[in-house]
Write a structure and sequence with these properties.
The chain is built from one helix and 56 strands. With about 650 residues, it is mainly β. The protein is elongated, with a radius of gyration of 64 Å.
Length: about 650
Amino acid sequence: MSEPTFNKRVIDDIKVGIVSTDQLLPPSFTSSPVLSDTTGVSGESISVSFSSSGNPSPTATYQWFLNGSPIGGANASSYTTTATGGISAGVTLTNSEGTAYQIAEGQVGLPPSFLVQPSASATGVTVGTQVSIENVTASGTQPMSTSYVWTINNSVIGGETSRTYTTGITGTTLTGKITVTNTYGSTERTLNFGTVGVAPSFYVGDSGPIFANPSINNRVGDTVNVRGIYYNGVPVPGATATVTDSIGSRTVDASIVDTATLNNEGKKTEQFEIRNTSDITVTINIGNVHGTSASSVVFNNISPANAAASFLGTPSASATGVTVGTQVSINNAGATGWPVPSTVYEWTQNSSVISGATLASYTPSATGPLSGKVTIDNTSGGATSATVSFGTITSTGSSNFAPYFSGTPAGSTTNPDVGERMTFLTYGSTGLPAPTTTFQWYDDGVAISGATGYGYVLGATGEIVDAEVAYVVTNNGSSNYIIDGAAQPVLSMTRGVQYTFDLSGVSTSHPFRLATTENGSGGQYTDGWTTNGTQGQAGANAVFIVPADAPATLYYYCGNHNGMGNSINVRTVPATDVTMTGNLTGVVTLTNSEGTTGATIDYGTMLNANITNLSLSNVVAGGTLTATVTYGGTFDSITWTGVTS
């Protein structure tokens, strides 16, 4: 093989093409300038980057432009944008061999922002209500897009992507989210529409809410249950009940509520007390945030509470003392009670029941005392009666008629003690001619001698046996009183006896009085003391019934002058004989030329007699003696033991 030959010219040319590391070269971009963010936002710092070559190494200078116009002072490799628009950075490379220039371009824009905060059109709505996201106004660099997402109970509602939504199910939380997006960013807002519920309503049948039967066995005072009132709503409604009667309205207990019977359902039991017989309206009110509803029921035909019969007022006579043939009536005989009381009338004249007189009115056909009795009764209590006196029925003409008592004679007390005063009461009379009235007191049916006054003090004898003593009083100037002709005598009085002082002859300048001290220094004694008329005038007197507790010494005196009176010795009736311990009666008798009528009053057994002058004989020393005496209508044994001669 022959040795290769070389053309010298060619080799020289090759040498010329070899670059020396010290060879000078103009600047050039090995990679073009680019911006760190070609879609920046106002206020963002953007930088420009590139790679270059040249010998010597080129230096770089910068100029930033906005919409093609240079930005004064923007000569660094980075720039913080202050406005939107086209942004560009011009890069110039320079060395001793020349220059190179390239530009990097981008855009500066605004991300979306809400001009007004979006809002919910409503909160706490019911199923079927359309809601919307309001005030959807955003600013930012176009183009911008808007999207919507709806959730219920934190679950996205499929297919609901518009600004409005019509609620279809219930839930505790409904939200709507709006998102606005552009090249430069996005913004979003989630709105809470609250609960989606159901307005309250009653479950109704053919006649409304199911109430307990309101018209069976309801009575005043009963506690009534209104139950089985079913209602629903979301959230579960609160419930109250109002009871209205003629007294007024009241809210009754609302504590008994079941909420688990059915979904979103309440069952209520109301209790209330019936206060009177008026109709009662019970209104159930239910309500939640979505509304209210009410339903009522009326309780009627209410019976009163069981009550014993009683009179509404006091039965009274329509008139008294009428003449024969005049109709009279028992007034104010209305009754109350439950069951409704029955009413029965009975009329009595001259102590005999009038046959067939059973109405509230009666026309008398005879003279004499007339009374009517009304009796009311029911099954809730015993009978109650009232007797009404119509006085004495008189003749229609001027003919004489036998006397009658205008009232019912009675006694002032029963079972009296020795020394106790008794009197007749209500023994007024009528008759033509006017009757005379006489009295007689009896011990075990035997007339008590001298006891012929309308009063009697048990055990009294002698001048006080009729329990009345009369004195005639005059005065001797201012010197003294004269009583029954004696100058200022010492008087003796017995407790229970009535003393009458005739004062018609005593000057008004010398008022006759009683006291517990001489000359009345301790004040006037007025117990049992009554004055009648004007002292010094005809008929004037003072009546003194000595009280059982009167002191042992009293004084009569002049209210204007000392020294005119004297003392009064007060005593109790002396112990009476054992025979005065029987049954005491009093008889009052009316007499005129047309007849006689009388009434006997039983005062009962006389008590507390003292046994006096009991003599013993034939007593054996060391023996036992038993004496039995009649005492108060009973037999008491008195035993002495160890009797010695």
